[in-house]
Amino acid sequence: MDEPVKELKITRMFDAPIESVWRAWTDQSMIKMWWGPRGVTNPTCEWDARPGGKINIVMQAGTELGPMAGQKWPMGGTFKEVTPMSRLVYTSGALDDVKKMFIEQRVTVEFEALGAKTRMKLHIIVTNSRGDEMARNALRGMEMGFNQQTDKLGEFLQTIKG
To answer: pTM above 0.90?
Structure first.
């Protein structure tokens, strides 16, 4: 493989059992609730967490994102590996207005049970970028977006506790 365009690693500890964290990552009705950075909803959320399963999410900017409100950011992908309660690997990419990927990435999510808590390791490798302004903007916001998304996951897990 060529050198990655960009690489990001995030590790978080959640005060939730691994079964809850796993379900939040594999149940598309749950994904819809927390996916994306702050201020984003997911009017389209197809998440088929099985090897060969497809990903089709359209994120939409809300009013709290000011001038970006209403913008839609579609992404597609395919699951490569699904090891229950342990690991997810998928490829995904941001799509432009004509459904062409302008950024492609490989994402690995690992889960580790630590009593009633769960450690999650997220590893994102951007494998290809079109290199235009749209791609450069997305790459600039990638770290903030994935961190906000991970924060939202932690908050969501607290709402389903009990």
So the answer is: yes
Q: List CB contacts of 162: < 8 A, sequence separation 6 or more.
A: none
Q: Which helix (H) or strand (E) holds 26?
A: helix 18-26
> In terms of Cα–Cα distance, which of 40, 9, 32 is closest to 156?
32
> What is the rounded CA–CA span in Å between residue 148 and residue 143?
9
- From residue 8, alpha-carbon distances to 25, 52, 79, 136 in Å are 19, 24, 19, 15
User: Is 134:96 a contact under the CB 8 Å cutoff?
Assistant: yes
99-157 pLDDT, tens digit per residue, is: 788 899 999 999 999 999 999 999 999 999 988 888 888 889 899 999 999 999 999 99
Does domain 6-159 sit in CATH 2.40.110.10?
no
Interior angle at CA 154, CA 153 and CA 155, nearest 5: 90
Helix axes 18-26, 133-159, angle to 10 degrees: 140
Torsion angle, CA of 92/133/38/78, rounded to 10 degrees? Answer: -10
Where are the chain's structural domains? Answer: 6-159
Q: What whole-number distance in Å separates Cα of residue 125 and Cα of residue 108?
A: 9
